[in-house]
Amino acid sequence: MGPYFADDAASLVSDALVGVARAHADLLTLQAEHGYLRARHPAPARRVAVVSGGGAGHEPLHTGFVGTGMLDAACPGRVFASPHNRQIYEASLAVAGSAGVLHVVKNYTGDRINFGIAAERLAHRGVPCARVLVDDDLATESADIAAGRRGTGGTVLIEKILGAAADTGMGLDELAALGTTLTASCRTLAVASAAHTAPTTGAPAFAVPEGAVEYGVGIHGERADHAIQVAGIGSLVEQMTHELLYALAPPAGAQMIVLVNGLGAVTQLELYGIFDALARHLEARGCEVARNLVGNYVTALDMRGFSLTLLVVDDPQTLRYYDAPVRTAVLHW
Amino acid sequence: MTSTSFGATFTSDWMRRFAASVTATEDELTRLDQQVGDGDFGVNLSVGVQAALRRLPDKPGPQDEAAAPLEAAASAFLDEIGGTSGPLFGLLLQSLATAAAEAGPALTTPALAAGAASGLAAIQRVGEAAVGDRTLVDALAPVADALRTVPAATPPDRALLTAADAAWQGARDTVRIKARLGRSSYLGDRATGIPDPGAVGVSLLFASGVTVVPTLAPHLQEAGH
Protein backbone atom coordinates (compact mmCIF):
# COMPACT_ATOMS: atom_id res chain seq x y z
CA MET A 1 0.00 0.00 0.00
CA GLY A 2 1.13 3.57 -0.70
CA PRO A 3 0.87 6.56 1.63
CA TYR A 4 -2.90 6.66 1.08
CA PHE A 5 -5.46 3.90 1.73
CA ALA A 6 -5.27 2.70 -1.87
CA ASP A 7 -3.00 0.31 -3.71
CA ASP A 8 -1.33 3.08 -5.69
CA ALA A 9 -1.74 6.66 -6.87
CA ALA A 10 -3.64 5.60 -10.01
CA SER A 11 -6.17 3.34 -8.30
CA LEU A 12 -6.86 6.09 -5.75
CA VAL A 13 -8.96 7.84 -8.41
CA SER A 14 -10.40 4.92 -10.36
CA ASP A 15 -11.50 3.04 -7.22
CA ALA A 16 -13.16 6.16 -5.84
CA LEU A 17 -15.13 6.75 -9.04
CA VAL A 18 -16.61 3.28 -8.89
CA GLY A 19 -17.35 3.80 -5.21
CA VAL A 20 -19.06 7.15 -5.76
CA ALA A 21 -21.27 5.58 -8.43
CA ARG A 22 -22.15 2.71 -6.13
CA ALA A 23 -22.81 4.91 -3.10
CA HIS A 24 -24.97 7.38 -4.99
CA ALA A 25 -26.56 5.11 -7.55
CA ASP A 26 -29.87 6.96 -7.09
CA LEU A 27 -28.27 10.23 -8.24
CA LEU A 28 -25.65 9.41 -10.84
CA THR A 29 -24.03 6.82 -13.05
CA LEU A 30 -20.40 6.22 -14.00
CA GLN A 31 -19.60 6.05 -17.70
CA ALA A 32 -16.53 3.87 -17.29
CA GLU A 33 -15.32 3.80 -20.91
CA HIS A 34 -14.89 7.56 -21.12
CA GLY A 35 -14.41 8.27 -17.41
CA TYR A 36 -17.16 10.63 -16.34
CA LEU A 37 -20.07 10.72 -13.89
CA ARG A 38 -23.48 11.69 -15.14
CA ALA A 39 -26.63 12.84 -13.31
CA ARG A 40 -29.56 10.45 -13.51
CA HIS A 41 -32.41 12.94 -13.10
CA PRO A 42 -31.73 16.39 -14.52
CA ALA A 43 -34.62 18.86 -14.18
CA PRO A 44 -37.01 18.53 -17.14
CA ALA A 45 -36.92 22.29 -17.83
CA ARG A 46 -33.13 22.36 -18.16
CA ARG A 47 -32.10 23.23 -21.73
CA VAL A 48 -28.38 23.70 -21.12
CA ALA A 49 -26.33 20.96 -19.50
CA VAL A 50 -23.75 22.07 -16.94
CA VAL A 51 -20.46 20.13 -17.14
CA SER A 52 -17.38 20.57 -15.01
CA GLY A 53 -14.23 18.67 -14.20
CA GLY A 54 -10.60 18.94 -13.30
CA GLY A 55 -7.87 17.07 -11.53
CA ALA A 56 -8.82 14.57 -8.83
CA GLY A 57 -7.67 15.18 -5.27
CA HIS A 58 -10.18 17.99 -4.65
CA GLU A 59 -13.05 15.77 -3.56
CA PRO A 60 -15.89 16.24 -3.11
CA LEU A 61 -15.34 18.70 -6.02
CA HIS A 62 -16.62 17.89 -8.67
CA THR A 63 -18.04 14.39 -8.30
CA GLY A 64 -19.98 15.26 -5.14
CA PHE A 65 -21.94 17.91 -7.01
CA VAL A 66 -23.33 15.76 -9.82
CA GLY A 67 -27.08 15.33 -9.51
CA THR A 68 -30.34 17.19 -9.78
CA GLY A 69 -30.02 20.97 -9.65
CA MET A 70 -26.27 21.21 -10.09
CA LEU A 71 -23.87 19.39 -12.47
CA ASP A 72 -25.08 17.14 -15.28
CA ALA A 73 -21.63 15.59 -15.59
CA ALA A 74 -18.21 15.74 -13.98
CA CYS A 75 -14.94 14.67 -15.63
CA PRO A 76 -12.14 13.86 -13.19
CA GLY A 77 -8.53 13.75 -14.29
CA ARG A 78 -5.75 11.98 -12.45
CA VAL A 79 -4.67 13.52 -9.13
CA PHE A 80 -4.05 17.23 -9.74
CA ALA A 81 -4.03 16.69 -13.53
CA SER A 82 -6.53 17.92 -16.10
CA PRO A 83 -9.05 15.48 -17.56
CA HIS A 84 -8.43 14.44 -21.16
CA ASN A 85 -10.37 16.35 -23.82
CA ARG A 86 -12.03 13.05 -24.80
CA GLN A 87 -13.67 12.69 -21.37
CA ILE A 88 -15.04 16.23 -21.55
CA TYR A 89 -16.13 15.86 -25.17
CA GLU A 90 -17.91 12.54 -24.61
CA ALA A 91 -19.56 13.72 -21.38
CA SER A 92 -20.73 16.94 -23.03
CA LEU A 93 -22.11 15.11 -26.07
CA ALA A 94 -23.94 12.66 -23.83
CA VAL A 95 -25.63 15.22 -21.58
CA ALA A 96 -26.02 18.21 -23.96
CA GLY A 97 -29.41 19.87 -23.72
CA SER A 98 -31.46 21.33 -26.56
CA ALA A 99 -29.63 24.65 -26.06
CA GLY A 100 -26.17 23.16 -25.59
CA VAL A 101 -23.55 22.73 -22.88
CA LEU A 102 -22.00 25.09 -20.36
CA HIS A 103 -18.47 24.23 -19.22
CA VAL A 104 -17.49 25.44 -15.76
CA VAL A 105 -13.69 25.52 -15.84
CA LYS A 106 -11.30 26.36 -13.03
CA ASN A 107 -8.53 28.57 -14.34
CA TYR A 108 -5.56 26.27 -14.88
CA THR A 109 -3.67 26.01 -18.16
CA GLY A 110 -4.28 22.27 -18.61
CA ASP A 111 -8.00 22.55 -17.85
CA ARG A 112 -8.37 25.53 -20.17
CA ILE A 113 -6.70 23.69 -23.03
CA ASN A 114 -8.55 20.40 -22.59
CA PHE A 115 -11.97 22.01 -22.13
CA GLY A 116 -11.07 24.26 -25.09
CA ILE A 117 -10.27 21.30 -27.34
CA ALA A 118 -13.52 19.62 -26.28
CA ALA A 119 -15.41 22.83 -27.07
CA GLU A 120 -13.89 22.95 -30.57
CA ARG A 121 -14.94 19.33 -31.11
CA LEU A 122 -18.47 20.11 -29.92
CA ALA A 123 -18.66 23.07 -32.30
CA HIS A 124 -17.55 20.72 -35.08
CA ARG A 125 -20.51 18.49 -34.17
CA GLY A 126 -22.90 21.45 -34.07
CA VAL A 127 -23.37 21.40 -30.28
CA PRO A 128 -23.45 24.94 -28.84
CA CYS A 129 -20.94 25.30 -26.01
CA ALA A 130 -19.90 28.18 -23.77
CA ARG A 131 -17.44 28.44 -20.90
CA VAL A 132 -17.45 30.02 -17.47
CA LEU A 133 -13.87 30.46 -16.29
CA VAL A 134 -13.71 30.52 -12.49
CA ASP A 135 -10.71 32.54 -11.28
CA ASP A 136 -11.49 33.45 -7.70
CA ASP A 137 -8.10 32.93 -6.02
CA LEU A 138 -6.96 36.26 -4.62
CA ALA A 139 -3.42 35.02 -3.91
CA THR A 140 -2.63 34.75 -7.61
CA GLU A 141 -3.85 38.22 -8.52
CA SER A 142 -0.73 39.85 -9.89
CA ALA A 143 0.31 41.59 -13.07
CA ASP A 144 3.32 39.24 -13.08
CA ILE A 145 1.18 36.10 -13.35
CA ALA A 146 0.25 35.81 -17.03
CA ALA A 147 -1.98 32.79 -16.39
CA GLY A 148 -4.24 34.90 -14.15
CA ARG A 149 -5.92 34.01 -10.86
CA ARG A 150 -6.46 30.31 -10.16
CA GLY A 151 -9.90 28.78 -9.78
CA THR A 152 -10.56 27.41 -6.28
CA GLY A 153 -13.26 27.26 -3.58
CA GLY A 154 -15.70 29.66 -5.22
CA THR A 155 -16.33 27.02 -7.88
CA VAL A 156 -18.78 25.20 -5.57
CA LEU A 157 -20.96 28.28 -5.03
CA ILE A 158 -20.88 29.16 -8.73
CA GLU A 159 -21.79 25.62 -9.79
CA LYS A 160 -24.73 25.61 -7.34
CA ILE A 161 -26.11 28.91 -8.54
CA LEU A 162 -25.61 28.15 -12.23
CA GLY A 163 -27.26 24.76 -11.77
CA ALA A 164 -30.37 26.38 -10.32
CA ALA A 165 -30.41 28.97 -13.09
CA ALA A 166 -30.10 26.20 -15.69
CA ASP A 167 -33.07 24.44 -14.07
CA THR A 168 -35.26 27.44 -14.93
CA GLY A 169 -34.60 26.82 -18.62
CA MET A 170 -32.13 29.68 -18.98
CA GLY A 171 -30.28 29.82 -22.32
CA LEU A 172 -26.56 29.29 -22.91
CA ASP A 173 -25.39 32.88 -23.36
CA GLU A 174 -27.37 34.07 -20.38
CA LEU A 175 -25.90 31.32 -18.19
CA ALA A 176 -22.37 32.12 -19.34
CA ALA A 177 -22.94 35.80 -18.58
CA LEU A 178 -24.34 34.96 -15.14
CA GLY A 179 -21.29 32.80 -14.44
CA THR A 180 -18.96 35.61 -15.41
CA THR A 181 -20.84 38.07 -13.17
CA LEU A 182 -20.75 35.65 -10.23
CA THR A 183 -17.03 35.01 -10.67
CA ALA A 184 -16.34 38.74 -10.70
CA SER A 185 -18.08 39.01 -7.29
CA CYS A 186 -16.28 36.06 -5.73
CA ARG A 187 -12.82 35.80 -4.15
CA THR A 188 -11.08 33.09 -2.16
CA LEU A 189 -7.96 33.05 -0.01
CA ALA A 190 -6.33 29.88 1.35
CA VAL A 191 -3.71 29.15 4.00
CA ALA A 192 -2.03 25.94 5.14
CA SER A 193 0.02 24.91 8.13
CA ALA A 194 1.12 21.66 6.49
CA ALA A 195 1.36 20.44 2.90
CA HIS A 196 -0.52 17.47 1.49
CA THR A 197 1.16 14.06 1.35
CA ALA A 198 2.48 13.48 -2.17
CA PRO A 199 0.79 10.27 -3.39
CA THR A 200 3.92 9.04 -5.14
CA THR A 201 6.54 9.66 -2.43
CA GLY A 202 4.49 9.66 0.75
CA ALA A 203 6.35 12.78 1.87
CA PRO A 204 4.86 16.23 2.50
CA ALA A 205 4.89 18.20 -0.74
CA PHE A 206 6.62 21.13 0.96
CA ALA A 207 7.71 22.23 4.44
CA VAL A 208 6.02 25.00 6.43
CA PRO A 209 8.00 26.81 9.13
CA GLU A 210 7.00 26.12 12.74
CA GLY A 211 4.17 28.38 13.93
CA ALA A 212 3.57 29.75 10.44
CA VAL A 213 1.11 29.28 7.61
CA GLU A 214 1.75 29.38 3.90
CA TYR A 215 -0.37 32.38 2.99
CA GLY A 216 -2.11 31.97 -0.37
CA VAL A 217 -1.69 28.25 -1.14
CA GLY A 218 -3.26 26.63 -4.19
CA ILE A 219 -5.35 23.47 -4.27
CA HIS A 220 -2.81 21.45 -6.27
CA GLY A 221 -0.26 21.59 -3.53
CA GLU A 222 1.26 24.79 -4.84
CA ARG A 223 2.90 26.52 -1.91
CA ALA A 224 2.26 30.22 -1.44
CA ASP A 225 4.70 32.95 -2.38
CA HIS A 226 5.24 33.65 1.31
CA ALA A 227 4.63 32.30 4.81
CA ILE A 228 3.47 34.36 7.77
CA GLN A 229 3.76 33.76 11.49
CA VAL A 230 0.36 33.25 13.11
CA ALA A 231 -0.33 35.09 16.37
CA GLY A 232 -3.84 33.66 16.75
CA ILE A 233 -6.68 32.33 14.66
CA GLY A 234 -8.69 35.53 15.17
CA SER A 235 -6.00 37.75 13.73
CA LEU A 236 -5.29 35.33 10.87
CA VAL A 237 -8.96 35.26 9.85
CA GLU A 238 -9.16 39.02 10.27
CA GLN A 239 -6.22 39.58 7.93
CA MET A 240 -7.71 37.22 5.32
CA THR A 241 -11.15 38.84 5.61
CA HIS A 242 -9.65 42.29 5.28
CA GLU A 243 -7.82 41.35 2.09
CA LEU A 244 -10.88 39.68 0.56
CA LEU A 245 -13.05 42.71 1.33
CA TYR A 246 -10.42 45.07 -0.03
CA ALA A 247 -10.37 43.13 -3.31
CA LEU A 248 -14.16 42.80 -3.60
CA ALA A 249 -14.98 46.33 -2.40
CA PRO A 250 -18.60 45.42 -1.55
CA PRO A 251 -21.15 48.21 -1.02
CA ALA A 252 -22.16 49.06 2.55
CA GLY A 253 -24.55 46.46 3.97
CA ALA A 254 -23.71 43.94 1.25
CA GLN A 255 -25.12 40.43 1.57
CA MET A 256 -22.68 37.58 1.12
CA ILE A 257 -22.63 33.87 0.59
CA VAL A 258 -19.59 32.60 2.48
CA LEU A 259 -17.74 29.32 2.24
CA VAL A 260 -15.38 28.18 4.97
CA ASN A 261 -13.64 25.29 3.30
CA GLY A 262 -11.27 22.69 4.69
CA LEU A 263 -8.41 21.64 2.40
CA GLY A 264 -8.48 18.02 3.52
CA ALA A 265 -6.99 17.57 6.99
CA VAL A 266 -8.71 20.26 9.04
CA THR A 267 -11.47 19.18 11.43
CA GLN A 268 -15.04 20.36 11.27
CA LEU A 269 -14.50 21.54 14.85
CA GLU A 270 -11.83 23.96 13.65
CA LEU A 271 -13.82 25.07 10.60
CA TYR A 272 -16.81 26.19 12.70
CA GLY A 273 -14.49 28.25 14.92
CA ILE A 274 -13.03 29.83 11.80
CA PHE A 275 -16.53 30.51 10.46
CA ASP A 276 -17.50 32.29 13.67
CA ALA A 277 -14.41 34.49 13.47
CA LEU A 278 -15.14 35.25 9.81
CA ALA A 279 -18.80 36.10 10.49
CA ARG A 280 -17.84 38.44 13.37
CA HIS A 281 -15.30 40.28 11.21
CA LEU A 282 -17.77 40.60 8.34
CA GLU A 283 -20.52 41.91 10.62
CA ALA A 284 -18.11 44.36 12.19
CA ARG A 285 -17.50 45.71 8.71
CA GLY A 286 -21.19 46.04 7.96
CA CYS A 287 -21.59 42.96 5.81
CA GLU A 288 -24.39 40.41 6.21
CA VAL A 289 -23.68 36.68 6.05
CA ALA A 290 -26.76 35.74 4.03
CA ARG A 291 -25.85 32.07 3.49
CA ASN A 292 -22.96 29.88 4.56
CA LEU A 293 -21.30 26.58 3.86
CA VAL A 294 -18.83 25.19 6.39
CA GLY A 295 -17.00 21.96 5.60
CA ASN A 296 -14.66 20.15 3.22
CA TYR A 297 -15.84 20.99 -0.30
CA VAL A 298 -12.72 21.75 -2.36
CA THR A 299 -9.74 19.94 -0.94
CA ALA A 300 -6.09 19.38 -1.81
CA LEU A 301 -5.79 15.74 -0.75
CA ASP A 302 -4.81 15.90 2.95
CA MET A 303 -3.49 19.44 3.12
CA ARG A 304 -3.83 20.99 6.57
CA GLY A 305 -5.31 24.25 5.55
CA PHE A 306 -8.51 26.12 4.92
CA SER A 307 -9.89 28.68 2.52
CA LEU A 308 -12.35 31.51 2.92
CA THR A 309 -14.61 32.41 0.00
CA LEU A 310 -16.84 35.46 -0.17
CA LEU A 311 -19.44 35.84 -2.89
CA VAL A 312 -21.07 39.27 -2.86
CA VAL A 313 -24.77 39.03 -3.67
CA ASP A 314 -25.44 41.77 -6.23
CA ASP A 315 -28.91 40.55 -7.15
CA PRO A 316 -31.58 39.01 -4.85
CA GLN A 317 -32.19 36.40 -7.56
CA THR A 318 -28.75 34.95 -6.71
CA LEU A 319 -30.03 33.92 -3.27
CA ARG A 320 -33.14 32.38 -4.80
CA TYR A 321 -30.92 30.31 -7.10
CA TYR A 322 -28.74 29.37 -4.15
CA ASP A 323 -31.79 28.30 -2.13
CA ALA A 324 -33.37 26.32 -4.98
CA PRO A 325 -33.62 22.57 -4.37
CA VAL A 326 -30.50 20.52 -5.04
CA ARG A 327 -29.89 16.81 -4.73
CA THR A 328 -26.27 15.71 -5.00
CA ALA A 329 -24.01 13.52 -2.88
CA VAL A 330 -22.81 16.53 -0.89
CA LEU A 331 -25.30 19.38 -1.26
CA HIS A 332 -28.94 18.51 -0.77
CA TRP A 333 -31.75 20.81 0.27
CA MET B 1 -5.45 15.36 -63.98
CA THR B 2 -9.02 14.70 -62.84
CA SER B 3 -10.27 15.89 -59.51
CA THR B 4 -10.91 12.32 -58.35
CA SER B 5 -7.12 11.84 -58.22
CA PHE B 6 -7.31 13.72 -54.95
CA GLY B 7 -10.01 11.65 -53.30
CA ALA B 8 -9.68 9.35 -50.30
CA THR B 9 -6.76 7.45 -51.83
CA PHE B 10 -4.69 10.61 -51.86
CA THR B 11 -5.55 11.73 -48.31
CA SER B 12 -5.18 8.19 -46.98
CA ASP B 13 -1.73 7.95 -48.57
CA TRP B 14 -0.92 11.37 -47.13
CA MET B 15 -1.77 10.17 -43.60
CA ARG B 16 0.23 6.96 -44.12
CA ARG B 17 3.23 8.99 -45.31
CA PHE B 18 2.81 11.24 -42.25
CA ALA B 19 2.88 8.13 -40.06
CA ALA B 20 6.03 6.91 -41.84
CA SER B 21 7.69 10.34 -41.46
CA VAL B 22 6.90 10.49 -37.73
CA THR B 23 8.15 6.94 -37.20
CA ALA B 24 11.36 7.68 -39.09
CA THR B 25 12.07 10.89 -37.16
CA GLU B 26 10.68 9.97 -33.73
CA ASP B 27 14.12 9.81 -32.10
CA GLU B 28 15.12 13.17 -33.57
CA LEU B 29 11.85 14.72 -32.32
CA THR B 30 12.47 13.25 -28.88
CA ARG B 31 15.98 14.71 -28.76
CA LEU B 32 14.65 18.15 -29.74
CA ASP B 33 11.93 17.99 -27.10
CA GLN B 34 14.34 16.78 -24.43
CA GLN B 35 16.22 20.04 -24.92
CA VAL B 36 13.26 22.42 -24.85
CA GLY B 37 10.27 20.51 -23.45
CA ASP B 38 9.48 17.46 -21.39
CA GLY B 39 10.73 15.01 -23.97
CA ASP B 40 7.48 13.23 -24.76
CA PHE B 41 6.58 14.93 -28.02
CA GLY B 42 8.13 12.30 -30.31
CA VAL B 43 6.40 9.49 -28.46
CA ASN B 44 3.06 11.35 -28.34
CA LEU B 45 3.13 12.05 -32.06
CA SER B 46 4.10 8.44 -32.71
CA VAL B 47 1.20 7.18 -30.57
CA GLY B 48 -1.05 9.48 -32.61
CA VAL B 49 0.02 8.25 -36.02
CA GLN B 50 -0.14 4.60 -34.93
CA ALA B 51 -3.71 5.20 -33.71
CA ALA B 52 -4.48 6.98 -36.98
CA LEU B 53 -3.18 3.99 -38.99
CA ARG B 54 -5.55 1.71 -37.07
CA ARG B 55 -8.49 3.97 -37.85
CA LEU B 56 -7.75 4.64 -41.54
CA PRO B 57 -10.07 2.92 -44.00
CA ASP B 58 -8.43 -0.26 -45.34
CA LYS B 59 -8.57 0.30 -49.06
CA PRO B 60 -10.23 3.55 -50.04
CA GLY B 61 -11.64 3.53 -53.55
CA PRO B 62 -10.90 6.39 -55.98
CA GLN B 63 -14.49 7.62 -55.56
CA ASP B 64 -14.38 7.78 -51.75
CA GLU B 65 -14.41 11.20 -50.16
CA ALA B 66 -11.12 12.85 -49.32
CA ALA B 67 -12.41 13.98 -45.93
CA ALA B 68 -12.83 10.49 -44.43
CA PRO B 69 -9.14 9.58 -43.87
CA LEU B 70 -8.45 13.07 -42.48
CA GLU B 71 -11.41 12.72 -40.11
CA ALA B 72 -10.18 9.28 -39.01
CA ALA B 73 -6.71 10.65 -38.27
CA ALA B 74 -8.23 13.65 -36.47
CA SER B 75 -10.26 11.55 -34.05
CA ALA B 76 -7.23 9.32 -33.39
CA PHE B 77 -5.12 12.34 -32.42
CA LEU B 78 -7.94 13.91 -30.37
CA ASP B 79 -8.95 10.75 -28.53
CA GLU B 80 -5.81 8.75 -28.02
CA ILE B 81 -2.93 11.10 -27.20
CA GLY B 82 -2.29 12.48 -23.74
CA GLY B 83 -0.88 15.92 -23.04
CA THR B 84 -1.92 18.86 -25.15
CA SER B 85 0.20 19.20 -28.30
CA GLY B 86 -1.01 15.90 -29.82
CA PRO B 87 -4.70 16.79 -29.49
CA LEU B 88 -3.92 20.20 -31.01
CA PHE B 89 -2.70 18.33 -34.13
CA GLY B 90 -6.08 16.58 -33.99
CA LEU B 91 -7.82 19.95 -34.19
CA LEU B 92 -5.77 20.86 -37.27
CA LEU B 93 -6.63 17.55 -38.95
CA GLN B 94 -10.29 17.99 -38.01
CA SER B 95 -10.33 21.44 -39.62
CA LEU B 96 -8.71 20.05 -42.77
CA ALA B 97 -11.33 17.28 -42.82
CA THR B 98 -14.20 19.74 -42.42
CA ALA B 99 -12.88 21.96 -45.21
CA ALA B 100 -12.34 18.94 -47.45
CA ALA B 101 -15.89 17.71 -46.81
CA GLU B 102 -17.30 21.12 -47.65
CA ALA B 103 -15.32 21.27 -50.90
CA GLY B 104 -16.74 17.99 -52.19
CA PRO B 105 -15.50 14.45 -52.71
CA ALA B 106 -11.99 15.52 -53.78
CA LEU B 107 -9.39 17.59 -51.98
CA THR B 108 -8.80 21.02 -53.51
CA THR B 109 -6.25 23.73 -52.91
CA PRO B 110 -8.89 26.19 -51.62
CA ALA B 111 -10.03 23.46 -49.18
CA LEU B 112 -6.45 23.04 -47.93
CA ALA B 113 -6.18 26.80 -47.50
CA ALA B 114 -9.50 27.02 -45.66
CA GLY B 115 -8.65 24.02 -43.45
CA ALA B 116 -5.22 25.37 -42.51
CA ALA B 117 -6.72 28.76 -41.69
CA SER B 118 -9.55 27.38 -39.55
CA GLY B 119 -7.16 24.90 -37.89
CA LEU B 120 -4.83 27.76 -37.04
CA ALA B 121 -7.75 29.75 -35.62
CA ALA B 122 -8.95 26.80 -33.50
CA ILE B 123 -5.46 26.10 -32.15
CA GLN B 124 -4.97 29.76 -31.31
CA ARG B 125 -8.35 29.92 -29.53
CA VAL B 126 -7.54 26.87 -27.46
CA GLY B 127 -3.83 27.38 -26.86
CA GLU B 128 -3.99 31.17 -26.64
CA ALA B 129 -0.72 31.30 -28.56
CA ALA B 130 0.28 34.06 -30.98
CA VAL B 131 2.86 34.01 -33.74
CA GLY B 132 6.27 34.35 -32.11
CA ASP B 133 5.41 32.44 -28.93
CA ARG B 134 7.60 29.52 -30.05
CA THR B 135 4.82 26.98 -30.58
CA LEU B 136 3.45 25.01 -33.51
CA VAL B 137 1.62 28.21 -34.50
CA ASP B 138 4.96 29.50 -35.80
CA ALA B 139 4.89 26.84 -38.54
CA LEU B 140 1.14 26.76 -39.12
CA ALA B 141 0.63 30.50 -39.57
CA PRO B 142 3.13 30.65 -42.48
CA VAL B 143 1.37 27.61 -43.99
CA ALA B 144 -1.99 29.38 -43.85
CA ASP B 145 -0.45 32.51 -45.35
CA ALA B 146 1.26 30.58 -48.14
CA LEU B 147 -1.83 28.56 -49.08
CA ARG B 148 -3.94 31.70 -49.24
CA THR B 149 -1.82 32.99 -52.12
CA VAL B 150 -1.64 29.73 -54.12
CA PRO B 151 -3.94 29.96 -57.21
CA ALA B 152 -7.15 27.97 -56.69
CA ALA B 153 -6.59 25.81 -59.75
CA THR B 154 -3.22 24.56 -58.46
CA PRO B 155 -3.33 20.78 -57.83
CA PRO B 156 -3.37 20.16 -54.06
CA ASP B 157 -0.14 18.14 -54.10
CA ARG B 158 1.66 21.18 -55.51
CA ALA B 159 -0.01 23.36 -52.90
CA LEU B 160 1.18 20.99 -50.17
CA LEU B 161 4.77 21.42 -51.40
CA THR B 162 4.39 25.17 -51.02
CA ALA B 163 2.85 24.66 -47.58
CA ALA B 164 5.73 22.40 -46.53
CA ASP B 165 8.33 24.97 -47.58
CA ALA B 166 6.55 27.62 -45.53
CA ALA B 167 6.28 25.31 -42.52
CA TRP B 168 9.96 24.31 -42.55
CA GLN B 169 10.95 27.97 -42.80
CA GLY B 170 8.66 28.77 -39.86
CA ALA B 171 10.13 25.90 -37.85
CA ARG B 172 13.69 27.01 -38.62
CA ASP B 173 12.80 30.55 -37.56
CA THR B 174 11.74 29.35 -34.10
CA VAL B 175 15.39 28.73 -33.18
CA ARG B 176 15.73 32.45 -32.62
CA ILE B 177 12.60 32.86 -30.48
CA LYS B 178 12.54 32.95 -26.70
CA ALA B 179 9.51 31.03 -25.42
CA ARG B 180 6.67 32.77 -23.60
CA LEU B 181 4.32 29.77 -23.31
CA GLY B 182 4.65 26.04 -22.76
CA ARG B 183 7.43 24.09 -21.12
CA SER B 184 10.21 25.91 -22.98
CA SER B 185 9.11 29.17 -21.35
CA TYR B 186 10.87 28.03 -18.17
CA LEU B 187 14.20 27.80 -19.99
CA GLY B 188 14.64 31.41 -21.09
CA ASP B 189 17.59 31.80 -23.44
CA ARG B 190 18.58 28.15 -23.13
CA ALA B 191 15.87 27.16 -25.62
CA THR B 192 17.17 29.41 -28.39
CA GLY B 193 19.16 27.58 -31.03
CA ILE B 194 16.74 24.64 -31.04
CA PRO B 195 13.63 24.57 -33.24
CA ASP B 196 10.26 24.14 -31.56
CA PRO B 197 9.28 20.45 -31.82
CA GLY B 198 5.60 21.29 -32.40
CA ALA B 199 6.51 23.50 -35.35
CA VAL B 200 8.68 20.67 -36.72
CA GLY B 201 5.70 18.31 -36.35
CA VAL B 202 3.52 20.65 -38.43
CA SER B 203 6.22 20.69 -41.09
CA LEU B 204 6.25 16.88 -41.13
CA LEU B 205 2.49 16.84 -41.66
CA PHE B 206 2.53 19.10 -44.71
CA ALA B 207 5.77 17.71 -46.17
CA SER B 208 4.24 14.22 -45.98
CA GLY B 209 1.56 15.40 -48.41
CA VAL B 210 4.09 14.62 -51.13
CA THR B 211 6.82 12.40 -49.72
CA VAL B 212 7.98 10.54 -46.62
CA VAL B 213 10.50 12.57 -44.63
CA PRO B 214 13.27 10.16 -43.58
CA THR B 215 15.26 12.60 -41.43
CA LEU B 216 14.85 16.10 -40.05
CA ALA B 217 18.40 17.37 -40.25
CA PRO B 218 18.48 18.61 -43.88
CA HIS B 219 15.25 20.54 -43.36
CA LEU B 220 16.36 22.20 -40.15
CA GLN B 221 19.60 23.55 -41.56
CA GLU B 222 19.48 27.19 -42.62
CA ALA B 223 19.55 28.07 -46.34
CA GLY B 224 16.68 25.77 -47.33
CA HIS B 225 15.78 26.15 -50.96
Automatic annotation (TrEMBL), chain A:
Domain DhaK, residue spans: 8-333
BP term (GO), one: glycerol catabolic process
Keywords, alphabetical: Kinase, Transferase
The UniProt record lists the keyword tRNA-binding: no
Class of this enzyme: transferase
One Pfam family of this chain: Dak1
UniProt-listed InterPro entries: DhaK_dom, Dihydroxyacetone_Kinase
Transmembrane annotation, as ranges: none
Entry annotated with the keyword Kinase: yes
Any GO molecular function: glycerone kinase activity
Cellular-component GO terms for this entry: cytosol
Protein name, entry field: Dihydroxyacetone kinase-like protein
Annotated EC: 2.7.1.-
From TrEMBL, chain B:
Entry keywords, A to Z: Kinase, Transferase
Broad EC category: transferase
MF-aspect GO terms: glycerone kinase activity
Domain DhaL: 9-211
One GO cellular component term noted in the UniProt record for this chain: cytosol
EC number: 2.7.1.-
UniProt xrefs under InterPro entries: DhaK_L_YcgS (IPR012737), DhaL_dom (IPR004007), DhaL_dom_sf (IPR036117), Dihydroxyacetone_Kinase (IPR050861)
GO annotation (BP), single: glycerol catabolic process
PANTHER family: TRIOKINASE/FMN CYCLASE, TRIOKINASE_FMN CYCLASE
Protein's name according to its UniProt entry: Dihydroxyacetone kinase-like protein
